[in-house]
Write a structure and sequence with these properties.
Blueprint: E1 2-7, H1 24-40, E2 46-49, H2 53-60, E3 67-68, H3 78-85, E4 94-98, H4 102-112, E5 125-133, E6 136-145
Parallel strand pairs: 1-4, 2-3, 2-4
Antiparallel strand pairs: 1-5, 5-6
Amino acid sequence: MDLLLWRHAEAVDGTPDHTRELTKRGERQARNVAAWIEERRPKRLRVLVSPTARTRQTASAFTDDFEIVPSLGPEGSVAELLAATGWPDADRPCVVVGHQPALGRLAALLLAGEEADWTIKKGALWWFTTRTRNGETQHVLRAVVPPDLV
């Protein structure tokens, strides 16, 4: 299974948190990373999005065919991310457009074996895959794409 963790692009400051929209820079970040994903898009890619305005706008730079999942909001946990995506056993690849700290904690869990407060930069994408080698399941980091380098 492929799992793409995409942190929402840069958003304006303010409250209420759920209605914060992308800045002009954030819109560019989202378009650039979306184009990068499109060139490498796995077949049958499922797109899951937090209900916030900034995550929906980030995802919309890539597709309008996404599912809004309330448990992926800013207060979401690693367990909720795993449950929503079905990692590592789902039959479809998945991109999650979400928030810190849950995305960074999930990245730490997949790479280091335990949750830790890792940061995924705004607008960045981390792409993981799972595979079996010699009877052992492995989680592999395929790519890290910061928005300012695409």
